[in-house]
Design brief:
By secondary structure, this protein is α+β, with helices and mostly antiparallel strands. It folds into 3 domains: about 60 residues, Nucleic acid-binding proteins (OB fold (Dihydrolipoamide Acetyltransferase, E2P), Beta Barrel); about 70 residues, 5' to 3' exonuclease, C-terminal subdomain (DNA polymerase, domain 1, Orthogonal Bundle), CATH 1.10.150; about 50 residues. The chain contains 9 helices and 5 strands, in the order βββββααααααααα. Strands 3-2-1-4-5 form a 5-stranded antiparallel β-sheet, with helices on one face. Strand 4 and strand 5 form a beta hairpin. The radius of gyration is 17 Å and the shape is globular. This is Holliday junction branch migration complex subunit RuvA. Keywords: ATP-binding, Cytoplasm, DNA damage, DNA recombination, DNA repair, DNA-binding, Helicase, Hydrolase, Nucleotide-binding. One of its GO terms (biological process) is DNA repair. Pfam families: HHH_5, RuvA_C, RuvA_N.
């Protein structure tokens, strides 16, 4: 229904952003909300997908058109819902996920929350050879700025990152395992999320 929405980021949380457009605040669930910038002087383009179920209407958003296309492809796989697709995209490397599917690398795919051997096999069966249009997409110009909202306390970025990862389905046990390896670093929330995902997927 909505191809994209352009507006100002009014709020950034662990699971979603609020994008204000013409007096309406859209709550948009995203793989990693902290890639967006809460900057009142910058208009942001968010590529959106509206998901409708009997009991839910939700708006999902992505920083790039490539991510949006990959999200829709993942939703077509039996066993993967919107939350699972977000967790896969939060890894931030669609090309690596595509390589794993093309190479039938089940060991890599089962590291995502909610993806067991059966779902990993289904991903390979449904998507292998069908993702060329995702990696071949032209770079779509985006006004997303790589500036980040910096909380008052240095530790807040790490806490926000862990909350975001928990909302994607990573267990408390998994997060406790990687947290010590991230402490003491001076990173943005987005950087913490990316480093934590590298550790979780290794």
């Amino acid at each position: 229904m909505y191809e994209y929405i352009k507006g100002m980021i009014e709020q950034i949380g662990p699971e979603y952003i609020v994008l204000e457009n013409n007096g309406i605040g859209y709550q948009i669930l995203t793989p990693n909300p902290f890639v967006f910038s809460k900057n009142q002087d910058v208009e942001t383009v968010v590529y959106t997908y509206q998901h409708v179920r009997e009991d839910l209407i939700a708006l999902y958003g992505f920083a790039t058109f490539e991510e949006k296309v990959m999200f829709k492809k993942l939703l077509n796989v039996s066993g993967i819902g919107p939350k699972g697709a977000l967790a896969i995209l939060a890894y931030g490397e669609p090309a690596q996920v595509i390589r794993a599917i093309e190479n039938e690398d089940e060991k890599f795919l089962v590291k995502f929350p909610g993806v067991g051997k059966k779902t990993a096999r289904q991903m390979i069966l449904d998507l292998k050879g069908k993702l060329n249009d995702v990696v071949a997409l032209p770079e779509v110009a985006s006004t997303v700025q790589k500036e980040f909202l910096i909380p008052d306390e240095p530790e807040d970025e790490l806490k926000e990152a862990l909350l975001a990862l928990a909302s994607l389905g990573y267990s408390e046990r998994e997060l406790r395992k990687v947290e010590p390896k991230l402490q003491g670093k001076d990173l943005t929330t987005d950087q913490y999320i990316k480093q934590a995902l590298q550790l979780l997927m290794s």
